[in-house]
Design goal:
With 474 residues, the protein is of the alpha+beta class. It has 19 helices and 16 strands. A 7-stranded mixed sheet has the order 1-3-2-4-13-7-14, with helices on both faces. It has a 3-stranded antiparallel sheet with strand order 10-8-11. Strand 15 and strand 16 form a beta hairpin. The longest helix has 18 residues, at 66-83.
């Protein structure tokens, strides 16, 4: 899922271009999509009347669908034209590892944009801890009156001391995928979730290198997907980076060592070599997408970007995909599947905060969101309950939608046998440690021969340093 790290500038001056949005496709590539006529609601036009002639700068966390990025641009352009305003939108990769550092530097220099949207789980806590975000509780309460409640995860990642500092935009589900045709051939069951041990053993059973079938499509190389995989195994085994307050490092535990031993065995035990695709040790975030779409993997973990690609491009793997909620471990009998939202934040020092809030209100629902959602089916989903009922597309556009909507309503927290409750309180230290790829570095050291217990202890020490840099004395 990695994207280019450069920040590409797109400036909208109100030029008319609605564009064709949707998800039709054909064997030779995507066909022209059915149009979504993006409209600005009259209520927002009335609110924007006093802001005519104004401008905002915006950062967008790059979506893993170029068509969806273009659809988002078109929605912004329609808003700019209708309201007589200017919106400058820059794309930024969430997987580059330096996104928060760049935003921090810009705010301190007074050169920051007015607003941005980004993963609430990964970034909002860090920016709030730096003191860079504006209270947007008024906007969230206004939207709650219109759209009902946002995804349950947002109450954890966007709220600090009872106040909202981010506005849920669109929901991104947690998911894993397996080849249901390969499983069926081997008589293996298709279930809503599995244990990690089941997935490992099934991956070996369906593998056949001579037929270019590799059952295991999860890397531990530096990437966002690898971070998610490693953390999930550790959590389901009963370990965690921090305690439930998000302030105390608790990484070095027997449960974490057991999880790291399990993962390391997959990549070092000759028994499992037949299920590992060539080059998996050097994969980036885009590699599992590419290999899944090439039809050579039996299992992968990904946002619904790979699912969206297979559907919109008429890839035959789509019909053979079994999406499921994830895996369990010794400390948890249900998957940690509550997703995240890309959420809008308004930076302190914004030159036009009122217009920034209005842009956020426009983008979260109606035709503005529908156009983006249709270009990234099941990847871009409503965060707000009543938006799910706003168009037949969300209720009948894909068989996966019902399960996705239920994930937005997941009761949280989910508690492990070891006393951790997920999602935990947003932890700037944990977010920074994850962004620094300490988990993937740890697994690389295990693969190179370091004992799991020693690798965990060394990583614990590195995580402590990160927490203390964030102001949390250990």
């Amino acid at each position: 899922m990695a994207e280019k790290t450069e920040w590409s500038r797109r400036t909208f001056l109100g030029v008319s271009a609605l564009g064709a949005l949707g998800l039709a496709g054909c064997a030779s590539g995507p066909a022209p999509a059915p149009k979504v006529d993006v409209q600005v609601p009259q209520a927002l036009l009335d609110q924007a009347a006093a802001l005519r002639g104004g401008s905002v700068g915006m950062l967008s966390q790059k979506l893993y669908s170029e068509a969806a990025n273009k659809a988002l641009d078109r929605s912004l352009q329609v808003f700019a034209q209708a309201t007589g305003t200017t919106i400058r939108n820059d794309l930024v990769s969430g997987d580059a590892g330096d996104m928060v550092a760049k935003m921090d530097a810009e705010v301190k220099a007074g050169t920051n944009r007015d607003l941005a949207f980004m993963s609430d789980r990964r970034f909002v806590g860090q920016l709030h801890n730096l003191g860079h975000l504006t209270d947007v509780t008024d906007v969230v309460e206004e939207m709650r009156a219109l759209y009902g409640n946002p995804a349950t995860e947002a109450d954890n990642y966007c709220v600090f001391d009872g106040r909202w500092f981010a506005i849920p935009y669109h929901f991104i589900a947690t998911a894993m995928y397996l080849r249901k045709d390969w499983y069926t051939e081997k008589g293996l069951p298709l279930k809503p979730f599995y244990s990690w041990e089941e997935l490992r053993d099934n991956a070996l059973a369906v593998s056949d290198p001579a037929k270019r079938r590799f059952g295991w499509g999860l890397t531990v190389n530096r990437s966002g997907d690898a971070n998610g995989f490693i953390a999930n195994v550790i959590n389901t085994y009963g370990g965690a980076i921090a305690d439930n307050t998000g302030t105390k490092v608790v990484f070095n535990s027997p449960e974490t060592v057991a999880a790291v031993s399990f993962i390391g065995d997959i990549y070092t035990n000759p028994k499992y070599a037949p299920m590992l695709p060539p080059g998996i040790g050097s994969w980036t975030d885009s590699s599992n997408n590419e290999n899944w779409l090439a039809g050579i993997l039996g299992l992968t973990l990904n946002q619904f970007s790979v699912y969206a690609d297979s559907k919109t491009k008429k890839n035959p793997v789509y019909a053979n995909t079994h999406p499921f909620n994830g895996a369990t471990g010794p400390a948890l009998d249900r998957p940690l599947a509550f997703g995240e939202s890309n959420s809008f934040v308004v930076f302190k020092g914004a030159k036009n905060p009122d217009l920034a809030k209005l842009v956020a209100k426009f983008m979260v629902g109606g035709s503005a969101l529908l156009g983006v959602a249709k270009e990234a089916p099941c990847l871009v989903n409503p965060s707000w309950d009543k938006v799910w009922d706003s168009d037949p597309y969300y209720t009948g556009g894909d068989p996966a939608f019902a399960a996705l909507r239920e994930q937005t309503r997941t009761p949280i927290p989910i508690k492990t046998k070891t006393g951790y409750a997920f999602p935990q309180k947003p932890s700037p230290g944990e977010q920074a440690a994850t962004a620094a790829y300490l988990l993937t570095d740890m697994m690389q050291s295990v693969i190179q021969g370091t004992r799991p217990a020693d690798a965990v202890a060394a990583t614990h020490a590195r995580i402590v340093q990160v927490f203390e840099q964030q102001g949390y004395r250990q």
